[in-house]
Write the structure tokens for this entry.
Amino acid sequence: MPRETGIEVTITTVGNEPARAFVPFPLPPSPALEIDGQLQASLDRALTSLGRLDAVSTLLPDAHLFLYSYIRKEAVLSSQIEGTQSSLSQLLLFEIEEAQGVPLDDVEEVSSYVAALEHGLKRVREGFPLSNRLLREVHRILLTTSRGSDKQPGEFRRSQNWIGGTRPGNAVFVPPPPDKIEDCMADLERFIHDEKETTPILVKAALAHAQFETIHPFLDGNGRVGRLLITLLLSTHGILKAPLLYLSLYLKQNRPRYYELLGSVRSEGNWEDWLAFFAEGVSSTAESAVASARELTRMFARDRAILQEKLGQAAESALRVQAALQARPVSTIARLAHSTGLSIPTVGRALDRLVALEIVQEVSGRKWRKTYTYREYLRVLNAGTETG
């Protein structure tokens, strides 16, 4: 049923042009959500899919190896939604200081997202509450690049922003005025901590994300912090042993519907359709992550078997290099020598064998300081991150 989700207030902007800004009511929605059988089934499927993802993460040889690359894939996708053109391969190259010719501003921005995400996850694992203070910390790290340094990193905005259009007067949506931000975010924090009534975690994550995007508390980076909020909420509640659920690919692929449903929540109080969309996103994303984890597990085992069969006594060093590339699928001879404890000549010979077996690919084209990728691993990770 239609419900009011907030009030409009008149604001005066530059040039004394009046505009209407939207101030959301605190969560949970009132009247209460109408979760019918179909919506409940969608939420149940999402929880089942999360259970499968949690189970498969325990079967991985080392879930942290998968997590390292998976977090970086999420960083690329979340940043692409905001307009960056950096690819996963470029980010991995950047992290080994081999990023010649890549769009440096873009890849630095994605790298900052990785740092912000890892900081937030570390804090909640250590027991720090998911709070406005933590969101500001994450935002400060996110905007450490030169492009974000003038956007009040780590602070709630002190000026008006808007979405779409050239000014608040012709914008698609105008978030709350700056003097309402502290109250709105305090209300959101109380909801996150169930201070009014307990809300199931998936429902809470869906509502909190939409509310955060409506408040738009920062001058820049709201979309990325809003997507991080989902991951931090699920991690805080222990839904997954490893934080392997990231919705950016789903939101990127369904961007028009995503924005349409956020608008419907604000204008009509249509939380139920938004919840159904969110639940479908969790289900499809979790199932995709399960499929990727299983594919990588099979691939690593297959490649180990190939090396043992084809290389005989020379397999030992090649297997150590292959294991190191599972941890970092883009690397150099020097870095592989450091991580494996092998000599540089031994690593070089092992890589030559891996290249000959088409397990590894040299991608720099240089005679010296060559860069190698674990071909199939990178192909699996790159799915959905292609630009252009």
About this structure: Residues 87 and 178 are 35 Å apart (CA to CA). The two ends are 42 Å apart (CA to CA). The mean pLDDT is 88.
